[in-house]
Amino acid sequence: MNKLKLAGLSLGLSLIIIGCNSGDNRGNQGFVEIKEKMFIAQTNDVYANPEDYIGKTLKLEGIFQIQKAYTLNGNPYYFVIRYGPGCCGSDGNAGFEVMWRDDPGTYPNPDDWVEAVGVLGKYEEDGYPYLCINLTSLKVLDERGAEFVTQ
Predict the structure, then answer these.
(1) Would you place residue 123 in the very low, low, confident or very high pLDDT band (cuts 50, 70, 90)?
(2) Bridge partners of 84?
(3) Beta-bridge mates of residue 130
(4) Which of 61, 69, 87, 95 lies 20 to 30 A from 111 at CA?
(5) Average pLDDT of the residues of the chain
(6) Is the full-model pTM beyond 0.90?
(7) 149 is a domain residue
């Protein structure tokens, strides 16, 4: 499966990482909380209008996932997602790639329910832009929210 199809099937989640940076020197110019009731809509808005969000702090809760199948240089990739409706007979996911950029923090176990906070950054691979959250906080929570969202 090529990278473009894979990215489309996962609703914008990138499965290839080279690096993630803030995209410019504007720094943190705002705070956006991705809430449960509008999780897919807000996530899609970030991917559709990245210039409105790059450099802003995002906060979201979701399922922590580790992707090892499509690694570069043997390093796994990390995501905070919620399950959603898919297309073309596949399951869909909505959420973001996450990484510790400046602080080598630890990662939780797969399928833990987490709260992720960090600054949205971007990078480019083979001419395609990808977004990720540069973590400032990643906490495992005891109470889980809705794992499957439809809006």
Answers:
(1) confident
(2) 92
(3) 123
(4) 87
(5) 79
(6) no
(7) no
In a domain, 126, yes or no: yes
User: What is the average pLDDT across 79-101?
Assistant: 84
Could you give the maximum distance between any two Cα atoms of the chain, in Å? 41
Region 98-110 average pLDDT:
84
Q: How far apart are CA 65 and CA 82, in angstroms?
A: 10
Q: How many structural domains does the chain have?
A: 1
Question: 43 lies in a domain?
Answer: yes
Look-up: residue for tokens 């504007």?
26
37 lies in which domain range?
3-140
Domain of residue 49, CATH code: 2.40.50.140
pLDDT digits (tens, 9 = 90+) for 47-58: 999 999 999 999
DSSP-based three-state secondary structure for 46: helix
Average pLDDT over residues 31-49: 95
